[in-house]
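for the writeup, i need someone to sanity check this before i put it in the appendix. the sequnce is what the collaborator sent (i think, or maybe the updated version? ugh). structure was predicted straight from it, no edits. if anything looks off just tell me and ill rerun, i have time this weekend
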Amino acid sequence: MSILKIIGETLFIYGFLGWIYGVLIQLFYPDWLSYGLSHLTPWIRVDTFATISFALSIIGFLTMRLCKTFNSRTNH
């Protein structure tokens, strides 16, 4: 279960940071939302990246919480 918890934590942290990046771009440079994320990934837009990052952070958080709940039940 520890590997699954580590994957959940990683998805949560990096997904949340990616979502924060998208929100900050939306607040300060709203015209950039329709641009490609970078020259290496022109097929993904900034707003799409923020949405995917938010979904990944939710999945990571739920995975992390489920691992914690499962571990606490098996230890009693």
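The chain has one domain: 2-74. The chain has two helices and no strands.
thx in advance!!
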